[in-house]
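As a warm-up, study this chain.
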Amino acid sequence: MPTEESRTARRDRPTPGALLLCRAEPESVAAAAQLLREHMLLVPAGGEWSVLVPEGRPWQEGGEPVDRVLTGWATALAVGGTWPVLALWWDADRAGFTLASGFRRPVGYIWLTNGTPAGENEAMHTFAGRLGLDPVLDMQSLDTLTRPDGAADARARMRGLVAVLTRAGVALPSGLTPGDSADRLHEAARLQPHVRIEWPGWREAFLAELDAVEGGRLVPWLPWAGGPRANAVALAQVAVGLPLTVWGLWRRSGGWTAAGAVLLANGALGLAYGLTHVPD
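Now compare it with the structure written out below.
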């Protein structure tokens, strides 16, 4: 029979949760996040940062690992855009982050629940370089997170990472603490001024983005729309997005399916814009 000590240990084990930090204004993030087809809360997180707080259904109901879901979501938000996306995630066994930026390969790092580093040191250097962190002061702090420390568990490692990010302008609202459950994070986000991301459907999302282009309010994640090579880029996005969507569906990976779907939607928007707006 399980002892009281073992039952307490199970209750204290971290439950899966995640945050998506985007280096962009909430208005731009909201437009991109609609295509993820997930209900989320969007909260300002500093002067030039926003944070998406997902409900967590893919890993709570679908059984898909939280790190795989978040990697797909971060990639989907970052493709074709000018701002990076940092996914912070954790579950009962591990915690870590994934940084996605444009079409570059995502980079990340992992700690075991007890804080043992389980990533490659070079990933930290790549992470710092892509975010433009201080190569001396910030890298010293990041290097500390890659060394053994018996007094620092995975939550402490995540707090250390967030402390470094504050020097890059990140300011997580009160209550949004890495390591907490998705439910607790949602409760904290509801106390903040926020925008709830509702899935409007493909047609409405497509028309909303086309309207944004028409009105001259082109969101940063579609910087190529209307440019001289728009058709070529749009075709490339469709060519990459189609097999990625099929692969995600085959693997039953909601994150990678979303990444492929966003590429397909972006490519379709670019092609439609090119066909309906012929240069004079």
